[in-house]
Amino acid sequence: MATFVSTETPVLYGPPPSSVMPTPSSKLSISHQIGIAILVIAFVFGFPGNLFVVWSVLCRVRRRSVTCLLILNLAVADALVLLSAPLFIRFLAGPRGWEFGATLCKTVHYLCCVNMYSSIYLICLMSMDRWLAVTKPFLSQRLRTKKRLLSVMLGIWVMAFLMALPMPFYRSSLMVRPNVYVCMPYHWKDSTHEIFQYLWETVLGFLLPFTFILFCYISVICRLRSAMFQRKGRGNFLILLIIAAFTLFWLPYHLINILQVIGLMQNSASVLNVAKVARPNVTAFAFMSSSVNPVLYVFAGSSHIRQAGLGFMAKLFEGTNSESGSTRTRSSRGSNAESSVFTKLSVKLSRKGDGAGADPHEETMADLNNRDEMKTLTTLH
C-alpha cells in the first residue's frame, strides 16, 4: 500500500513536496481534509467495533463454527491495523510531516499490507469451507477439525507476513524540507521496482484470491440450484457480505495499481499523473475496509438485538453453525438409511435360510432385491 507519492522525479514519482505537505501557514487541502475525515470515521467506528466482535466471539459464543473463528481472525487483524490511524491523522493534520521515525514508517505500512493479504486469504478459506460443505459434505465433516483449522489459519498468517515483505523495502521517511520528513514510497529512482511492487500487490493480493473465491461461489450457487441442497443458511449470507465489502473498498486501489503500471510501461505522463493524484484517496478508502465488517454484522444480526441485547452478535455467529448442522443431519439420515437397508437384508437372508423348499423363482427375485438394496447402500456412501 502506498499513501503518499514520492518527490524524487516528478514524472515517475508524483508532485513536488509543496503539494504533499502543507506549509505551516497554509490551510489543509481538500484532499487532506477528506483523508482525515475517512481515518477518523474508520477509527471511531472500526476499532471499538472490532474489539466488540472479538469480545463476542471469545466471551459469548458457546459453539464456535469455522466461519466464527475466521471472523475472529479478521477482527483481530482489522483492530491492529486501525491502531495506526492516529499516526496517519497526525501526519495529515500537522505541518511537521512524519514525526515518528523511519522504523515506525516501515512498520505501520508493513502491518497494513499484512492485513490486506490476511483478510483476502481468510475470506478464501471461508469460501472454500462453504464450497466443501455444499459440494462435498462428508469430506467437509472429516476436515472440519479444530486442529486442522488452526494449522491452516497459522499458515495464512505466515504467508501474509511473507507476502508483505516488499513493503518495508519500498517505504522510507525522507526529508522534503528542512526538519520536515514524509513517510513515502521509495523505489531508488527505478521504475522496475515500482512495477514489481504494484503487480505483486495486485496479483497476489486481489486477482488470484478473488478468482478462487468466484470459483467457489459459482460452484456453490450451481449446487444450491439442484434439488438436493436448498438450505443456504446464515453463514453464506455473512460471507457474501464480507466479500462484497472487501471488493468495494479494495478494487479501486488495485485498479490504480494497474493504471500506474500501465503508465510506467508506456512512459505516459498523463496516465501516471492520474494514478498518482488518485492514489492517496483510494488508499484512504481501502483503509475503511478494516472498519466496515462490524457494521455488516450489526446489519445481519439486527433481528437478534431486541431479544439478546449485547449478545446479539453471539446469536448471529452461532447461527453460522446451521450449515454444519444440516450436513450432520444429512449424515445421520444416511446412517439411518444404511441401518434400515442392513436390517432388511438380514431379515430377507434369514427368511431365505428358513425356506429350504421355496420356489427357485422367488429366490431369484429375492437376490435381485438384495442387489438393488446393496446399490442403494453404495449410493449413500
Describe this structure in words.
This is G-protein coupled receptors family 1 profile domain-containing protein. Residues 320-336 have a biased composition (Low complexity). It is found in: Cell membrane. One of its GO terms (cellular component) is plasma membrane. Residues 320-381 are annotated as: Disordered. The protein is mostly helical. It has 2 domains: 10-328, Up-down Bundle (Rhopdopsin 7-helix transmembrane proteins); 334-380. It is 77% helix and 3% strand. The protein is built from 17 helices and 2 strands. The protein has helices at 10-13, 17-20, 30-60, 66-82, 85-93, 101-135, 137-143, 146-163, 166-169, 191-224, 233-266, 269-287, 289-300, 305-308, 312-318, 322-354, 360-380, and strands spanning 171-177, 180-185. A two-stranded antiparallel ribbon has the order 1-2. Strand 1 and strand 2 form a beta hairpin. Helix 16 runs antiparallel to helix 17. It starts with 9 loop residues before the first helix and ends with a helix. The relative contact order is 0.13. The model is unreliable at 2-20, 322-349 and 355-381 (pLDDT under 50).
Concise summary:
Belongs to the chemokine-like receptor (CMKLR) family. Belongs to the G-protein coupled receptor 1 family. This protein has 17 helices and two strands. The protein has helices at 10-13, 17-20, 30-60, 66-82, 85-93, 101-135, 137-143, 146-163, 166-169, 191-224, 233-266, 269-287, 289-300, 305-308, 312-318, 322-354, 360-380; strands spanning 171-177, 180-185.
